[in-house]
Design brief:
With about 120 residues, this protein is mainly beta. Helices cover about 5% and strands about 50% of the residues.
Length: about 120
């Protein structure tokens, strides 16, 4: 099981940007064996898919609500996943999590979650 640590969240005004990171405590060979995704959970709502990136980082998919504003990327040599978030909106406020993700189904591969990182966007 890969241990995941998310960071980079914070408080930002609407229209601002943040870059989230997800450090995985796994060998490079293990980390690049998984497609990786970002999910988020707002207060009182279910956790939802945000973005996914394939094993090599060439292919990505996004939720409709973030497409064109967020960019997912990965550095397999550093065992790190990123989420660049631009043009943030108050409705992006949530705790953001990374996890190994099924690329086609856009679902977590298992129940392996880190502690998450809080993103708060003020209007």
């Amino acid at each position: 099981q890969v241990h995941l640590v998310e960071s980079g969240g914070g408080l930002v005004q609407a229209g601002g940007s943040l870059r989230l990171s997800c450090a995985a405590s796994a060998s490079e060979r293990s980390f690049k064996s998984f497609a990786m995704g970002w999910f988020r959970q707002a207060p009182g709502k279910e956790r939802e898919f945000v973005a996914v990136i394939n094993l090599t980082g060439v292919s990505t998919q996004y939720a409709d609500s973030v497409r064109g504003r967020f960019t997912i990327s990965r550095d397999n040599a550093k065992n790190t996943l990123y989420l660049q978030m631009n043009s943030l909106k108050p409705e992006d406020t949530a705790v953001y999590y990374c996890t190994p993700t099924h690329y086609e189904l856009l679902r977590p591969l298992n129940d392996n979650w880190g502690q998450g990182t809080q993103v708060t966007v003020s209007s």
